[in-house]
Amino acid sequence: MDPAQSSKLSDGIEAPWWKLWAKRRNVVMLMAFFCMQVVYLTRLSLNVTVDAMKADLGQSWDTEQLVSSFFYGMLVTQIPGGFLGSKFGCTNVITVGIAGTSVLTIFTPLAAYGGAGWIIAVRVLQGMFQGVVFPCLLDLWARWAPPSERTNRVMVTFVGISVGTLKAMFIGELLVESVSWESVFYIFGVAGCLWCVAWFKMIRKSPDEDRSITDGEKEFIMQTLGNVEGQSEDVKHPWKAIFTSTAVLACAIAGFCQNWGLVNTLNMFPTFLKDTLHYELSPTGFLTTLPYVSAIKGLTIAGPLADRLQVKGLQTATQVRRNFTCASFIAQLIFMLAGALVLNPTAAIILMTIAVAMGSFAWAGYVVNLLDMSPKSAGVLMGVVGTFGTVADIVSPVVTGSLTANKTVEEWNVVFFVTAGLYLLGCTVYWFLASGELQPWAVEKRARDRQNDQCAIKYSV
C-alpha cells in the first residue's frame, strides 16, 4: 500500500501527542533511538579516552590504527547481519550485537594493559558485533513502519547517532577528568547491557508477535504493509537479483559517497583547520558540537517532509528518494567547498555545519529507499549499502592522509575537490538508476504466480 492510501486508515488509538507509549510502534521507535545512542557510546568510548589512556600507560600507540580497526570488523558482518536478522529475528540479532559490543567495551581497559594488539583485537570484535545492528534495524522498520510514517521513523532512529555522539563527547570527557579513563568503558558498557535487557523484554520483531500492541494498531500496520512476506516465516532472499540490481547499486554508491564526504566534513575537518588555519577546536567546545546538532535538526525536518510529500501525492516514492539524495549531495558539495576555500575559521565551521545538516536529507533518500524496493530483504540491502559505506570509512582517511603529507592549503583543496567529485558521481548515478518502486525480484514467486493467474482469468473472461 502506498503512503497516500495508508494515511487514510486509522489505528483506532485516540491519545494526546505526549502519550507516546499509547502506540506500540512509538515504543519501538524510542527503543531504536536509544539503540543508536548505545551503539555510538560504545563505539566512541576509545576515541574519547585514547589520549588519557596512552598518557597513563606511557605508550605512544598509533591512535588512528587503534580507532579505525573497528571498521574492519564491521566490514565482514553487515550482509550476514541482514540475513541472520531475517532468519533468527532482527530483535534477537540486535540484542546479541549490542550485548557483545557492550561486554567487550567493559573489557577494553584490561586489553589496554595487555598492549595495542589486544586493543585492536577487541575493536575488531566490537565492529563485528555492531555490524549486524544497522541491517537489523532496517529489517525491524520493514515490519513495523506504515508507509505513511516510514521515513520519519527511520530518521528519528538515526537522530540517536548524533545524540549518542554528543553524549560520548561530554560524558566521556567528564569521566576522564573526574574519575578515570577506565570508568568510561565500564559505564558505557554497563549502559549497553542494561539497554539489552530492556530491549529483549519489550520489543518483538513484528506486530503479530507483540503481546502489548492493541488489535487496532496491529491490524492497521499489517494492512498498510500488505502483510509483508516474511513476517512469520523464513525469507528467501533473491541473492543474484540483489547483487545485479542497478537500483541497489545506486544506493550502494550513494552510501559510499555519503560516508566518504562525512569522514572529511566531520572527522577530518578539525585536522584541516589545524593544518591550514592553525585553529584548534576544543574536543567538546561549542563549535565542535555544532555539526552534530545541525544533523539532528536536519533529520527531524527530512523525515516528516519526505513522508508528507508522498502522503499528499505531491511526489512519488522514486521522486522523493531521488530529490532528497541528489539535492543533499549537491548542497553538501557547495557548502563543503565554500568552507574549504573561505580560509576563515568561523566561516568555515558555519559552512561545514550547514553541509552536515544537508547531509541528513540524503538518509531520507537512499537509506529509506531500501524499504521501498524490497521490505522483506531490507536488512540484506542495508548490509550491502553499509558495507560500501564502511569501505569509504576505511579508505577515506588513508587517502586524505596521503594527499596531505605536507599539510598545505593546496593539498587540502585536492582532498575536498576529490570529495566534491564523489558527491557529483553519487548524485549522477543515483538520479539515473534509483527506483522507489517495489522491485519485481522482491516479490515471492508464489505471489507472482497469483498475479499471473489473476491476469489470465481476466483476459479469458
Stretches where pLDDT falls below 50 for ≥5 residues?
Answer: 452-461
Q: Strand share of the residues?
A: under 5%
Radius of gyration: 22 Å
- Name the helicity range: over 70%
Output the number of helix runs: 21
SSE class = mainly alpha
Average pLDDT confidence is: 92
Largest sheet: none
| Count of individual beta strands | 0
H/E element order:
HHHHHHHHHHHHHHHHHHHHH
What is the overall silhouette? globular
CA(first)-CA(last) distance: 27 Å
Organism: Culex pipiens pipiens (Northern house mosquito)
GO molecular function: symporter activity
Keywords: Membrane, Symport, Transmembrane, Transmembrane helix, Transport
Subcellular location: Membrane
Characterise this structure.
With 461 residues, this protein is mostly helical. The protein has 21 helices and no strands. The chain has helices at 3-6, 24-43, 50-57, 63-88, 90-106, 108-114, 116-130, 133-144, 150-178, 181-202, 215-224, 239-244, 246-267, 269-277, 286-311, 317-341, 345-367, 369-373, 378-403, 409-433, 445-460. Helix 2 runs parallel beside helix 9 (150-178) and helix 13 (246-267) runs parallel beside helix 16 (317-341). Keywords: Membrane, Symport, Transmembrane, Transmembrane helix, Transport.
